[in-house]
């Protein structure tokens, strides 16, 4: 069982409306509980609408069971509407002539959808492509031309190739099921009679080209089918209709180009050849991908500090470690003087505080009770330094 805690802060002086992903039940995850504050005042099939007053915070808490694929939850057949939606051309997944031409070249004379998809997967894992974050532009066509991008870019191009040959496919946005802000994106394609098959070309590329401990052919191939690592899905696909009653201007084409930056963010995101003002514009009339939320500002006064929000995924083990760390924080200052009293050797003090310091560093790194753990750590280090010098 995983505990997901997500929050976002409205720093602006105007209300903020969130299009917040409704965590789905899938063949590989079961959402046992989910609460949202403030309470949603509207919903679509894929999202809730939540209004956050100025200076306030919205949060979502969910218990998610991550498990092996459950055949009983598979979707062996798609409805006509679903098939049409998952083979459609969109801003981020355009079915342009260059996309289709490359898909035909890679497919060669293959006719089986799974074999075709595997050919696309192997192409993206090859030396002709590079993993790079941040990417210059989010979208399949940019990935095709630049041959470099992040996890989303790899997924977009894979989905575009599949759709261009009539294979239903979709991007998946979520997080690794442990830690803070471990955002990730991958893809799925659909085979009639089988259901959705997950594919992670970007993680496969990293396994193939980086110095991973498990670098092997098996490690690469494991990213096609039953994916490695535990994940939580936020949303399927990347573009959603604007909710009823919500109006946002469309972002214009960005003739100047440029790249997205991880060092300094100006509140815009380059997507599909457009410079989208985050929270103030739509992408070709659609809400961009929900990971897990897109903030909307009625007056267009978007705050560049607000992006995806912040989240933590905890396991029972990490929760136990956190509780242990809290206890050590509270007791360290009281116990340390007694442990170090009347000892002429500093080794005893070093050993006594070693475990506590490790817990303190872990608490700070995971941003749990930062003020308490940081203050206690400073006190411990100061006491130990004084003891060593005397």
Q: What is the gist of this entry?
A:
This is Transglutaminase-like domain-containing protein. The protein has helices at residues 80-85, 97-107, 113-125, 140-146, 151-164, 201-209, 217-221, 316-340, 346-365, 370-389, and strands at residues 2-9, 16-21, 29-37, 42-43, 47-52, 57-66, 130-131, 148-149, 169-176, 179-180, 183-191, 195-199, 231-236, 240-241, 268-271, 274-277, 286-287, 293-297, 310-314.
Would you kindly provide a written description of the structure presented here, covering whatever features stand out?
InterPro entries: Papain-like_cys_pep_sf (IPR038765), Transglutaminase-like (IPR002931). It comes from Allokutzneria multivorans. This is Transglutaminase-like domain-containing protein. The protein is α+β, with helices and mostly antiparallel strands and 390 residues long. The chain folds into two domains: 73-290, C8orf32 fold (Roll), CATH 3.10.620.30; 315-389, no CATH class. It has helices spanning 80-85, 97-107, 113-125, 140-146, 151-164, 201-209, 217-221, 316-340, 346-365, 370-389, and strands spanning 2-9, 16-21, 29-37, 42-43, 47-52, 57-66, 130-131, 148-149, 169-176, 179-180, 183-191, 195-199, 231-236, 240-241, 268-271, 274-277, 286-287, 293-297, 310-314. The strands form six sheets. The chain has a five-stranded antiparallel β-sheet with strand order 3-6-1-19-10. A hairpin with a 2-residue loop joins strand 15 and strand 16. Helix 8 runs antiparallel to helix 9 (346-365). The chain starts with a strand and ends with a helix.
